[in-house]
Amino acid sequence: MNDSAAPKPIVSIQNMSKRFAGAVTAVDQVSLDIGAGEFFALLGPSGCGKTTLLRMIAGFETPTEGALLIDGQDMSQVPPNRRPVNMVFQSYAVFPHMSVFDNVAYGLKVARTKGSEIRPRVEEALELVKLGGYGARKPDQLSGGQRQRVALARALVKRPKVLLLDEPLSALDAKLREAMQMELVRLQHSVGITFIIVTHDQSEALSMANRIAVMEGGKVRQVAPPSELYERPSSRFVADFIGKINLFEAKPLGQSGAALELEVPALGRIAVPFSGDPAKVAWVAVRPEKLRLLRQPPEDGSLVFPGTVAEVAYYGETSHVLVSGPNGHGMTVNLHNGTQETPSTLAPGDSLCCSWAPEDTLLLAD
Amino acid sequence: MESWRRNPLFFWIVGLPPTLWLVLFFLVPLGLIWLFSFSDKRGIIDIELTWTLANYARSLEWLYLEIFLKSFWMAGATTVIALLVGFPIAFAISFAPPKAKPWLLLLIILPFWTNLLIRTYALIAVLRSRGFVNFGLEWLWDQGNWVLSLAGLGGYQLLGERFEPLELLYNNFAVVFGLVYVFLPFMVLPLYAALDRLDRSYIEASLDLGAGQLRSFFSVVVPMAKAGVVSGVIITFIPALGSFLQSDLLGGPDSQIIANVIERQFKSANDWPYGAALSFILMYLTFFALALRAVLSRGNRDAEGL
């Protein structure tokens, strides 16, 4: 696990597990330290336990075992309404019977904030999410994106130590989602509060978070900054879940100098720079955009996968080329359409080589 | 929906039976009663339509107006008590484990399966001076005396010389009690429907923002269950206004409500025209109350928007 978090964690999760009745283990022995000011993402497929973990931080679920510290304080006896965290719900949960102003003011009124202080703070929060002047509106007069901003303002006005976001963008359409991603990052920079976001969308996590925990089956599989997660995944699951990847079964043969020799049925015998435990390596992988398509095999020590073009899928800025090789193995290559002619240079049936640098090869555990 | 409307045959086949039913068994009788209310009684069974207003004039005498007011007061008290008792019940059921919900709802509906008359008579056995409530109180009284005698205070008769049963039956309390008992399911079911639909994340959001359980209940749950409260109040208040059985069986001499008077006109007094006029006044008053409620709630909505 990666320990690059700030020295003093704001949220410290220690060996936390949650088992529901019927022996379903939603969260399994998770330990995580989240530093103050981080934009942290919990990423994983549905049912991986990420939402349960977030709800335990908020206090809506009680951990079966383990401890949770927020800003050094043990939270085991603290109910949700006394925790220094606030949440933006997936459904937003903006109270329909209150105006926008009353929604945002609710948390302040409950905390018996001085009356003269409420109005300026609510207006500041609405200004922050670009809803200045919307105070008198009712939630049913707002769009989905605006309702979400109300939910954000309502949580931020409390000045929490940690803001929890449960799949905040899943209900928005693609264009709005992209704008909102940038908006959330801007907001996090300007308020300086730790954000913990739950998402199943890897591009959302990669573009917003500065660290990501990938979860599967209740366990955290890897915690790393986005680029490390993408370029140096630690397992087959993480590599496969984040982005697209070409995976081949491999059998390590032995270390020779700085390189590990492997027997890969799809590629033959290859040598790849490696400095880990060879016994754990079970897969060889390469990202589609790291591949070059060549008519002739190169002679610069690159790895080579010979084959014929089976399919070309055109996506505008890129084309995805499926190359079928020996023994029914296939390789997907992302071709950057750098010139207008690029897409037309390939046709199904063309025979060529996929080639990549040995150091771009990923050796993965199961 | 659209294609159903475009198929007139289907529309008529589905729509005709209920329309005929309503016309034959609701609109026609209602029209007859309306005509009766403008008629004169000419003999034991003869009624002649004379377009007289005497029946209405008689209904507006102070004696009867008082009974109208009292009926509204009793039905109102019944509705308020049913709401106060029913809301926590509906709330508890909506938060019960999914497997328990149908059984709890069954417990609420179960009394419907017993005849209303039998249930009301059963209440007499519960409330009368030698009924179950007083038996229970007497037992407590005995136990209290026993504890006092143990403490050496037996000789002072601190709890009175002998047990005085409470007079629970044959008064307005008994009538309202009986009405609440009968109409409670009418209140609980719409409230349950509203509360069960309420997205739990609203309550969680309220807790998350720092509100306690009680504050969340009154600031979020109750206002958001408003639609259920309104329908519960309406379908409790209106039948409670028209019930005569409870005041007949459980009430005392001053427990007459307008439904008793109407019932008597159609039966023992055999004055159908007058009973018809009273019925229509009751109906107009009910409409007026509903309209008033609609106007008031619209005013509320505007005020909240400010």
Structure characterization notes:
The complex is a heterodimer of chains A (366) and B (306). With 366 residues, chain A is α+β, with helices and mostly antiparallel strands. Residues 1-6 of chain A have low confidence and may be disordered. Helix content of chain A is 23%, strand content 35%. In chain A, helix 3 (115-128) crosses helix 4. Chain B folds into two domains: 62-128 and 168-303, MetI-like fold (Orthogonal Bundle), CATH 1.10.3720.10; 131-166. In chain B, strands 1-2 form a two-stranded antiparallel ribbon. Chain B starts with a helix and ends with a helix. Chain B is globular, with a radius of gyration of 25 Å. In chain B, helix 4 crosses helix 8 (172-197), helix 8 packs antiparallel against helix 11 and helix 13 runs antiparallel to helix 14 (272-305). Chain B is 74% helix and 2% strand. Chain B is an all-alpha fold and 306 residues long. The A-B interface holds A 58-60, 79-82, 85-87, 89-91, 93, 95-99, 106-107, 110-111, 136, 138, 151, 154-155, 158 and B 199, 201-202, 204-212, 215, 219-220, 223-224, 226, 304-306.
The CATH topology of the largest domain in chain B is: MetI-like fold
Query: Cα distance, first to last residue of chain A?
Result: 16 Å
Calculate Rg of chain A over CA atoms: 25 Å
Oligomer: heterodimer
H-E string of chain A: EEEHEEEHHHEHEHEEHHEEEEEEEEEEE
As for the CATH topology of the largest domain in chain A, it is: Rossmann fold
- How would you characterize the largest beta sheet of chain A? 6 strands, mixed
Distance between the termini of chain B: 38 Å
Strand content of the residues of chain A, in percent?
25-35%
